[in-house]
Design brief:
about 250 residues, transferase, 1-acyl-sn-glycerol-3-phosphate acyltransferase, single chain, eight-stranded mixed β-sheet, Glycerol-3-phosphate (1)-acyltransferase, Plipid/glycerol_acylTrfase, 1-acylglycerol-3-phosphate O-acyltransferase activity, 9 helices, acyltransferase, alpha/beta
Length: about 250
C-alpha cells in the first residue's frame, strides 16, 4: 500500500495504512543498537520487574508501555534504553505514538516509520473538535495492534514536561481508551511503566542537549494488569509512572 500523506484531512487513509504497517525488523534493531551506543542509557529495575518483564516477553503478552516525556530527544534515548533492556526482543514488534508533524519531512518520516511510529493528531495543534474522529481511529488502530500481539509505547502526558521533570504531569484519557478497547477485542495487555530522568534541571523549560541526554537514567516499574475502565487505567498509569519516575530520578 502506498504511504499516504500524514495530514489531518487524510486521516482515514493514514490510519488504514498504519493499521498494518510493518517496518523492517532487522533495520530497526540495527538503528536501536546504534542509538544505544550513541546515548548510553542506564537502565534499572524495580525489585522483580526484570524477571516479570522477561516472562511477559517470552509469553508474547502485548505490552502497553508508558513513558514520561521530557524532551524532543526522548524517542532516541528510549530506543537506546529498549536495546539495553529486556525489551530488546520486542524491537520491531512495538508501535510508538508520535505527533503528526514528525511525519511531514520525508527523511524524518522514514526514521519514525522504521522505529514503528503511529501518527497522533493532537488537540493542542489542531483543536479538540477537529481531531476527535482521528483520535478515535488512532485508538482503534492501537487496540488492534495490541490484539495482534504488538506492543504500544505511549508518552501519556501528551507533551514535554517543562514544569517539573521529577513529577508526572496530567495524563490524558487516550491511553486508558487504548487499553480498554484492546481488552474489548480480547487482548490481555500489561502495563509497563518506564521512568526517564536526564538529571537535575536548573530550568525545566530548557530541554537537554544531545550531550546532556547521554547516560539518561531509566527505571522499569513492576508490570501490572489493567483495570476494567478507561478512567481507572488512566489513573493507574499516572500512579505507576510516578513510581517509575521516582526510581529513575533516584538512580541518576
Amino acid at each position: 500500500m502506498e504511504r499516504p500523506e500524514v495530514v489531518l484531512e487524510n486521516s482515514d487513509a493514514v490510519y488504514e495504512f498504519y493499521r498494518d504497517h510493518q517496518q523492517n525488523r532487522w533495520q530497526a534493531r540495527g538503528a536501536y543498537a546504534l542509538l544505544a551506543r550513541r546515548y548510553r542509557a542506564r537502565v534499572a529495575y524495580a525489585p522483580a520487574a526484570r524477571e516479570r518483564l522477561r516472562e511477559l516477553v517470552s509469553q508474547r503478552r502485548p505490552l502497553l508501555i508508558s513513558i514520561n516525556h521530557l524532551s524532543q530527544l526522548d524517542p532516541y534515548t528510549v530506543a537506546a534504553a529498549a536495546w539495553s533492556s529486556v525489551l530488546r526482543p520486542v524491537i520491531g514488534r512495538t508501535r510508538v505514538l508520535a505527533k503528526d508533524e514528525l511525519f511531514l519531512e520525508e527523511k524524518l518520516r522514514r526514521r519514525i516509520d522504521m522505529m514503528g511510529g503511529i501518527p497522533v493528531f493532537r488537540g493542542k495543534d489542531h483543536g479538540l473538535r477537529a481531531v476527535n474522529a482521528a483520535g478515535q481511529q488512532m485508538i482503534d488502530v492501537c487496540a488492534e495492534r495490541l490484539r495482534r500481539g504488538d506492543g504500544v509505547a505511549v508518552f501519556p502526558e501528551g507533551t514535554c514536561n517543562n514544569v517539573d521533570p521529577t513529577q508526572v504531569q496530567s495524563v490524558g484519557s487516550g491511553i486508558g481508551h487504548i487499553g480498554f478497547r484492546a481488552m474489548k477485542l480480547g487482548a490481555q495487555p500489561v502495563l509497563v511503566s518506564l521512568g526517564l530522568s536526564y538529571g537535575p534541571r536548573t530550568d525545566p523549560t530548557v530541554e537537554p542537549s544531545k550531550e546532556e541526554a547521554k547516560s539518561a537514567s531509566f527505571y522499569f516499574g513492576v508490570p501490572v494488569e489493567l483495570p476494567a475502565r478507561p478512567a481507572e487505567i488512566a489513573r493507574l498509569v499516572r500512579a505507576e509512572l510516578q513510581t517509575a519516575l521516582d526510581g529513575a530520578v533516584a538512580a541518576y
